[in-house]
Amino acid sequence: MSGAIFAIVGPSGAGKDTLMQAAAARLPDLYLVRRVITRAEDAGGEEFEGITEAEFSTRLARGEFALHWQAHGLRYGIPASVLDHLARGKTVLFNGSRAMLDDAARAFPGLRVIHITASDALLAQRLHARDRETAPDIAARLTRARLPLPEGLDVTEIDNSGPLDAALDRLISILAPDPETTT
């Protein structure tokens, strides 16, 4: 049996990680990918494995990533172990970048994309609250938030500008369309 894989994408501050964690709490069989990123683990935000540039290059050369990309001056990797979870029939979610979706579709046939959005005002508020970036960095992120997704992908959009439960219910309906599979 083969599982399903979903790339959760959207602008910074849209609530991707919050929704993914909430979905995992409601769907215990859901597998959330722990990305590998070339930044310090104490940078906050999502749970990820922070490594150095040199270690990333070494692991990439050893074939330890099913998918990798660069964004915002960092390198990101999806561990190859995700393929084992898919082979066991798991539903797999990973936080991805909109810019790598074409590569992701090639790496994971049948990839579905869930595009999480929120209003510009809410994105700006959330980014300022994180206190990780300068005002010009935040302005640049808000500009990138309007970039279109690549064409030809299976994309579902969820607006996370309102109550979290509304966006979460929509996400659950996509991941587990059979209501008996939720807790």
Any overview of this molecule?
Keywords: ATP-binding, Kinase, Nucleotide-binding, Transferase. Catalyzes the phosphorylation of ribose 1,5-bisphosphate to 5-phospho-D-ribosyl alpha-1-diphosphate (PRPP). Strand 5 (65-71) and strand 6 form a beta hairpin. With 183 residues, the protein is an alpha/beta fold. The chain has seven helices and nine strands. It has one domain (4-174): P-loop containing nucleotide triphosphate hydrolases (Rossmann fold, 3-Layer(aba) Sandwich).
Distance between the termini: 23 Å
Alpha plus pi helix count: 7
State the helicity in percent bands.
Answer: 25-40%
CATH architectural designation: 3-Layer(aba) Sandwich
- Overall residue-averaged pLDDT value: 89
What is the count of structural domains?
1
Radius of gyration: 16 Å
Strand ordering within the main sheet: 2-7-1-8-9
How many E-type strands?
A: 9
Low-confidence stretches: none
Q: Helix/strand/pairing class, anyone?
A: alpha/beta
EC number: 2.7.4.23
Enzyme class: transferase
GO cellular component, one term: cytosol
Catalytic activity: alpha-D-ribose 1,5-bisphosphate + ATP = 5-phospho-alpha-D-ribose 1-diphosphate + ADP
List the helices and strands and how they pair.
Elements: E1 4-9, H1 16-26, E2 31-32, E3 36-37, E4 49-50, H2 53-61, E5 65-71, E6 74-79, H3 82-87, E7 91-95, H4 101-107, E8 112-117, H5 120-130, H6 135-144, E9 154-159, H7 164-175
Parallel strand pairs: 1-7, 1-8, 2-7, 3-4, 8-9
Antiparallel strand pairs: 3-6, 5-6
